[in-house]
Write a structure and sequence with these properties.
The protein is of the alpha/beta class. The chain contains nine helices and six strands. It has a six-stranded mixed beta sheet, sandwiched between helices. Helix 3 (66-77) packs antiparallel against helix 4 and helix 8 (229-239) crosses helix 9.
């Protein structure tokens, strides 16, 4: 019986009532889910921690989050010491390039993993694109879509089963997620997701491989949508090949706007096309410099 693990995390924030300041800081609320077979997880878990030790000289207990790079950048930019109480203090002597390269090489491990598949969901925080919905409604849309995508993917493999893990959140949000999953599973007379274990498991050990993976995918996707060059590069080369597709189409399957809306989907496509064009332009400029 093939056993799969799926790890999911969020990037960005959502509120029912959104101020201009909030939208400027959080233009999107994104979720990512990475799916892989348990046997691959065992191998990749070991390779991940070996890579962390060789590249960063830190042990498994040191979490390396996507947001730590931005936090360190702000300290470096201000030419200030990194406070000892910060969770990324032990990473202070590493260049940002090394930290980004560590994440790149981690994602590349997954890129080369046959069983790995990735799912992304996104909500526009712009008020004209998303009407005021309770956070519970938004979470239900995201989790439902992720479960449906996972179910469709692994149902092609006879007798397969998947366990979904969510990264730890603040207590109120965790409570909301529990209620959301309970409601999803109560809907309909027949099991909606027969290949997914009907439970909600949180990654209590934040330094775990799966927890950090979900964090990287969510952060890279959000950064790509915000047109950050390093995020675009990681998304196009390490992430894009592993996104779930239907008939070679990514939008509406592996990448979906929620609530689903034709205009918002067109906007999302425009953002991804713009990200692709931006990197191709940077590549041409770099190539021209090398030739000259």
């Amino acid at each position: 019986m093939p056993i799969y693990f799926a790890f999911s995390d969020e990037s960005g924030k959502y509120k029912k009532e959104r101020t201009d300041k909030f939208i400027s800081k959080n233009p999107f609320y994104c979720r990512a889910a990475v799916l892989l077979e348990a046997q691959d997880w065992i191998r990749l878990n070991e390779e991940f921690h070996s890579l962390k030790k060789s590249m960063l000289q830190v042990g498994p207990q040191q979490e390396v989050k996507w947001s730590y790079i931005w936090s360190l950048f702000k300290h470096f930019q201000k030419k200030e010491d990194v406070p000892k109480k910060k969770p990324y203090f032990s990473l202070r002597n590493h260049s940002l390039d090394i930290l980004v390269d560590f994440i790149r090489r981690t994602l590349q491990l997954l890129n080369e993993c046959p069983s790995c598949r990735v799912i992304f969901t996104l909500t526009f925080n712009e008020r004209t694109k998303t009407k005021p919905l309770e956070i519970k409604e938004i979470l239900k849309l995201h989790i439902s879509h992720i479960l449906s995508a996972i179910e469709e993917e692994i149902s092609r493999i006879p007798e397969s089963v998947c366990v979904l893990f969510l990264n730890r959140e603040e207590p109120a949000l965790e409570k909301c997620l529990k209620e959301v999953l309970s409601e999803i599973y109560k809907e309909g007379r027949q099991p909606r997701f027969p290949h997914i274990k009907d439970s909600l498991d949180f990654e209590y050990f934040t330094q775990s491989f799966g927890s950090q993976l979900a964090d990287y995918y969510a952060g890279v996707f959000n950064g790509c949508c915000r047109l950050y060059p390093q995020s675009i590069d990681l998304f196009r080369h390490q992430v894009w090949p592993k996104i779930i597709r239907k008939k070679d189409e990514v939008l509406g399957s592996g990448i979906t706007e929620l609530p689903e809306d034709e205009k918002n989907r067109a906007s999302l496509k425009g953002i991804l096309d713009k990200a692709t064009a931006a990197q191709e332009k940077d590549y041409r400029i770099s190539l021209d410099k090398q030739i000259k």
